[in-house]
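pinging the channel bc i need a second pair of eyes. not urgent but kinda urgent?? the chain im working w is below, pasted from the shared doc
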Amino acid sequence: MREWRDEVRAGLLRRLSAPSFSGLGEDLRLGVRVLRATPVVSAAALLSLALGIGANTAIFSIADSLLHRPLPVTRPDQLAVVLAQPPGAPAGISAWSNPVWEQIRERRHDLFDTAFAYSARVSRFNLAPAGPADLVDGIWVSGDYFNGLGVPALLGRTLTPDDDVRGGGSHGPAAVISHGLWQRRYGGTADVLSRSVTIERVPFSIVGVMPARFFGADVGTTFDIAVPLSTEPLIRGRDSYLERSGTSWLAIMARLREGQRADQAQSALRALLPQIRTVTMPAGLPPESQARYMSAPVTVEAAAIGTSNMRTKYRQPLLVLLVVVTLVLMIACANIANLQTARAVARGHEFSVRLALGASRWRLTRQLIVESLVLASLGAALGVAVAQWMSGVLIRQLTTYANTVFISVPLDDRVIGFTAIVTVASAILFGTLPAWLSFHTEPAGALRPHGRSSTSQGRRGPATVLVTVQIALSLVLVITAGLMLRTFASVANRDLGFDREAVLVSQLDLRKASVEPLARNAFYAEVSDKVAALRGVAKAAVSDITPISGSLVDTYVEIENAPPAPDVKNVAFQNVMTPGWFATYGTRIVSGRDFDSRDRANATPVVIVNETFVRRFMASATPLGHRIRKGAPGRQGPWLEIIGVVADAAYRSVREPVPPTLYLPLAQTKEPPAIMRLNVRAAAGPPARLVSTVAAAIEQMDPNVVTTFTPVLQQVEAALVQERMLAMVSGFFGALALVLAALGLYGTCWYAVIRRRHELGIRLAIGATPESLRRLVLSRAALLVGVGVVAGVSGSVWTSKSLTALLYGVEPFDVTTVASAVLVVAFVGLLATWIPATRASRTLPAEVLRES
């Protein structure tokens, strides 16, 4: 028998001291078995990790794609962008006029390897041959655009300089379509190259299809159709920008020569700039404006990551979200560390036996490290799937009716590398404590009664620290979520000064209509009157700008006999409209009158101003009857008599303060633009029900008028995209953090009750009441919650200040929000502790004494 025991012991020692590779495989198998032995606990840990790692990966992939990822083109490191701004200014997209681009294009070989231009903003192209618009995203590009980026076509060819000529190339206007449009509209068929597409009623031959990975040079957007710059007059007609020196609408990018730096290209461009500025000087500029035009700054900066107007807007929100999801992952790791610690304590007898049989402390520690890595790896695998889903949801949240947001988030080596780093960091965070406990296990623990080892004695202090950290971090996230939710509520419920519910906006595009420019005023007035008479329509009016559309027209203003104060910027926004516009939007006329038939083209020029205009420029005067004029110095128009004052109403943004605003009668505008907006107020019900009725009435007047329809409420909701996204994401993760902290507190208290069961039974046996035991457990939990709350409030003082730029209608350290968050965390902590406290109060002294 003794020989048999020696042989068994020797076999165990050989297994415990086996080579590392075979021991690692055994550790992996044992780690999987441990996870399978407690499926509920393991599932909760995996879900926590999947959400934490997935959220971090999702936000990282979006931020990386928008802020740091190079364009998917040939040698992106050679790309540079020409910017109209001082060095060091936040890089967005600088717009240039086509005459400036043509001058640079002629000199491009003296400056760069090549250069190309493209429309700085994605346009909406109408593909419908007749009737209501069928809109897709389109861009104008120069002939060298695709060649300059180094992107070949997937099918057919790209555009060339031969296509970029007035009226189209030798075979007519050509277009390149995206892979997405090819799939959606043409079913991915190869015969697409034999087809044509009608853009704004003009046929374009499809000459190529671009690869799926290519979205253009502007990060955050994509295109469905690209057409040559020189075909722009075919689409815009009389309103073409091509020959206008004063209209900036193009971005200019270059590919540097091998070994050339951006600053060298900048010096070469600045040397030629006086010639370019002289040739492209807009006509009619006063001397002051000419001097500013000649001295305007120009820089050339590296553009490996492309251009983007979204970077400046979403840089800080993405950083905030990255901090939020990092804190959530830390809370999840703290929770899993508690679970792993409980497992390590429960396995104390096993570890003591293994040590007694000759296993090394490093072997036990390695076993727990491997178990943590297995858990983290499984969580990361699920997290990658969560990241793909979550990033898609977030990007879709940014897309509105007028702005398609496209951010490529491929699962490439950058994302995989980040996920791997997060996975290893998570394993270290939640695996260190149980590994440390196992390292300090004593072999003598195997001889203690009931299999207790020293691991279970007095080693729960770190667990309570973890719970306190969880509570503190969750409170920071709940406060952050509260601030974001209150910001969204403040912006969404702001009094905008007009009725957002009952108005439908129809864009009227007359570029292909039979209406001559001088007849547009009469046509717009006729449309307004005819639509106002339709059944179900309460009011109707035509205007240049609609509220909260993001568009603006600003101008210098001069008050007669009242020179502006030196500290007041004499700039106001303006809008042009037909009579009845204020009634259509429900904006109150404070004094004076609305526009009417008296305000004809040959009548006294008039204007209506808002209350902010009066306060800023005419605080000491009665506005009615006073005269103002607008325009830059030296280019002012006629004097305008103020005939009315209207209540303040939001102009461009739901966040911005109401600007001083001028309202001008359309009848006194010499040549209104070819695109205006028809504003229709529904008599009852949702305004979208009027679309078919209004569209039919306009088509009867001129079937070549292109119309699109958008409820004003949809425009307002589109303006709330950032606030809604931050409120949604921070609210979700704030709630998740709260749940994780509650689970951590629950687990700690539950374990404490089980560990102290013998003590609690003796307390009851000698006269303690169940209520006193419940208070004992609750008081201990209250201490943990209290310490966590103090730490969380202290941490939120710093984090809240970093949110200042994102807040609206609420202070960074808002007492109401902080107090509410503290109450929520305290209440959830009480709920999490109540069940363990109740179990403690129901301990039976007789059972405990029999077990002793």
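so Confidence is low (pLDDT under 50) at residues 1-5, 7-22, 449-459. and The longest strand covers residues 202-209. — does that match what u expected or am i reading it wrong
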